[in-house]
Amino acid sequence: MVRPTVAGMGIYLVSVGAGQWLGDEEGDLGEVAAALDAELKRRGLPAYEPAPGESFEEKLVPPMAGFDTLCRTHLSLEEYQMLSGWSALVPILLDGPVRLPIENSYDDETVIASAPRVLALAEHLAQAIGLPPDVPRARHPLELTTWLLDGGAAKQATASPGPWGEDLDTAFYVVLYLRAAQHAIRHNCPLVFA
User: Fold this and answer.
1) Per-residue pLDDT tens for 70-95?
2) Residue 30 pLDDT > 60
3) What is the pLDDT of residues 92-123, one digit of tens each?
4) H-run or E-run covering 175
5) In angstroms, rounded to a whole number, what is the distance separating the alpha carbons of residues 100 and 112?
6) Exposed, middle or buried: residue 46 (CB in 10 Å: 0-12, 13-18, 19+)?
7) What stretches of 129-167 show up as alpha helix (H) in DSSP?
8) Element (H, E) at 32
9) What is the DSSP pairing of strand 57-59 with strand 12-15?
10) Is residue 3's pLDDT more than 80?
11) Is the dihedral of CA 28, 34, 35, 41 positive or negative?
């Protein structure tokens, strides 16, 4: 589920290169990758092979109360958990989250989510708040964070009014999950909270 203390902790959502995911670089996630591949094999699916990936980095800065309310209004509890209750996001289609008994910086287990499923849920929320299509694409590190904090979101809300602009903190998280899932799929790379 959404991490309620995110704003005070300085949590980032970042992409992970193939070397770090597979355990070839410092701070690697090799144990997670191996455990995921074992679970995929058990399900009759091929191992996940990430690409080098383009950089994605955003800081989870604003309060999440409005996003929590939006999710509880428009998603089932299971959908809400699928959207935001993960530790790592991978661009493969999974029926549901994969729970691994591997501790990470924020939890005593690692939960792997399917980017295509997260994307569908984020698109549903984007439609619910009338998010305009020309919000930032997160092609550069901290692009969304800067858009919110430096006033770009407020200017855009004035130019493109709608429900989305009534709570820019909530809109930020909708865009964050939307762009994170799109990035994972487009670049075949995992994303994790760091």
Assistant:
1) 999 999 999 999 999 999 999 999 98
2) yes
3) 999 899 999 999 888 899 999 999 999 999 99
4) helix 168-187
5) 8
6) exposed
7) 143-149, 152-159
8) helix 30-42
9) antiparallel
10) no
11) positive
Choose among 50, 44, 46: nearest CA to 23. 50
Q: Among all chains, which residue has been given the structure tokens 């590190």? A: 141
Residue the block writes with tokens 């970042």: 14
CB 153 within 8 A of CB 143: no
Alpha carbons 174 and 180: distance in angstroms, whole number: 10
CA–CA separation, 59 and 13 (whole Å): 6
pLDDT digit string, tens, across residues 129-170: 999 999 999 999 999 999 999 999 999 999 999 999 999 999
State pTM to two decimals. 0.93
Please report where in the chains the tokens 């383009």 appear, as a residue.
54
Taking CA atoms, 104 is separated from 86, 109, 127, 163, in Å, by 11, 7, 33, 36
The SS3 of residue 177 is: helix
User: Tens digit of pLDDT for each residue in 50-64?
Assistant: 998 789 999 999 999
Where is 70: in which H helix or E strand?
helix 65-74
> How many whole angstroms from its chain centre is CA 12?
10
